[in-house]
Specification:
CATH topology of the largest domain: Four Helix Bundle (Hemerythrin (Met), subunit A)
Pfam families: FCD, GntR
Protein name: FadR family transcriptional regulator
Shape: globular
InterPro entries: GntR_C, TF_FadR/GntR_C, Tscrpt_reg_HTH_GntR, WH-like_DNA-bd_sf, WH_DNA-bd_sf
Radius of gyration: 19 Å
Strand order of the largest sheet: 1-2
Distance between the termini: 59 Å
CATH superfamily of the largest domain: GntR ligand-binding domain-like
Helix content: over 70%
Organism: Roseicyclus persicicus
Structural class: mainly alpha
Keywords: DNA-binding, Transcription, Transcription regulation
Number of helices: 11
Strand content: under 5%
Number of domains: 2
Largest sheet: 2 strands, antiparallel
Length: about 240
């Protein structure tokens, strides 16, 4: 944030607003779709000016913690892929198991790179996202927070080529066919196990243990792939 021409009190307000918005996100005090309160609501809640709130959101957006859409509001995480048309083109020829094969090729290495580069603050954000995923009470919310967690790991990896490949795979997995089968693999027992797997991934990233992060992500995705395969076989046997 450039503070050269900003009054000292305004700068302090912006910094405080930024920290308070971070606290809101970490506490899960936002809507199920990840949308933050409006700028006006944030101003009233924090007792700061609209300018301070906008500067705070600018800083959080630059960090990759939130994204904004004109006329829609501010959301936790990162915006959808602007090149999503490519995902839409290949999605009809792609099934959920193909998506899992692609994820297994990409995400373990992204987790290893995240272990190399993530800061303590990054790890705290990952833990907050994992907590929201575990606490989600419906399939849409679970998918939202789970996707945010995996997207953040991809961003923390710091490799733009791998991240672009991940983004394409992530867009494909948001297609309805994937969503339908994914929801069937979300029994309470499986959700609890996925939460434990997320915890092991984050612990390895926190420990800066690249090999452990790689293996923990691979184990997580392998488990999901096996559950999807079981669901498919069960459906085919009917």
């Amino acid at each position: 944030m450039d503070t050269r021409h900003v009054p000292a009190s305004e700068t302090d307000n912006a910094s405080a607003a930024r920290d308070r918005i971070r606290d809101l996100i970490r506490a899960g005090a936002i809507e199920a779709d990840g949308k933050l309160p409006t700028e006006r609501e944030l101003c009233a809640r924090f007792g700061v000016s609209r300018r301070a709130v906008r500067r705070a959101l600018d800083a959080l957006e630059a960090e990759g913690l939130v994204w904004r859409r004109q006329g829609k509001g501010t959301f936790v995480g990162e915006p959808p892929d602007p090149g999503g048309h490519l995902a839409a083109m290949i999605a009809p020829d792609t099934d959920p198991l193909s998506v899992m094969e692609a994820r297994l090729a990409l995400e373990p290495e992204l987790a290893a790179l995240a272990a190399r580069r993530a800061t303590a603050e990054d790890v705290a954000r990952l833990r907050a996202l994992a907590e929201r995923t575990a606490q989600a009470t419906d399939a849409d919310a679970a998918e939202l927070w789970d996707g945010s967690l995996h997207r953040m790991i991809a961003r923390l990896a710091g490799n733009p080529i791998l991240r672009a490949a991940f983004t394409l795979v992530n867009e494909v997995r948001h297609q309805q066919r994937w969503q339908t089968e994914r929801q069937q693999a979300r029994s309470p027992e499986l959700v609890a196990e996925y939460g434990r797997q997320h915890g092991r991934i984050i612990d390895a990233i926190d420990d800066r243990d690249e090999a452990a992060a790689r293996e923990a992500m691979r184990a997580h995705l392998d488990a999901l792939k096996q559950n999807l395969e079981r669901i498919r076989h069960r459906e085919m046997a009917r």
